[in-house]
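Hey, resending since the last one bounced:
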Amino acid sequence: MPAYFPFLLVTHITLAVSLFLPSILLPFALRTRRAAETSPNRFVRFLLWMQAHGTLIIGIGLALTGIGLVVSLGGSLLGQPWLLVALGIYAANLVLAFFVQRPNLRRLVGIKAAADDRIWLDRARRQRYVSYAMAALVGTIGFLMSTKPQLW
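The structure tokens again:
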């Protein structure tokens, strides 16, 4: 194993989690009395910026580090059942993030709703449920990566 493998692995994991972080955390920052775009919280503004601008850069970095991991560990790694399942879950999570969570978050982020706006509150609650599902999928990937079970 090359000496740069630990750095490559940590970078890959950090980028993989960073790609989903805004989609998972932003629904919990939604407030009815102010639009998330005008939040005084720097972390919320950072998440908004990451969601709008950082995904392409992170995605490219993730692909490059993934290729580097496969090259350094060998192509036989791609035949491992646990890795194939984890990659399938990751792909499903990407689809969920980009085609369900992001468009719905865009609609809610810029809206300043009244405290009793039931429609807005219901939509925000649904977004939090999607975030819980995405976090569970990320946890499942972490479990598969750490235990490497024999699936078939």
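The CA atoms of residues 16 and 109 lie 24 Å apart.

Sorry for the duplicate.
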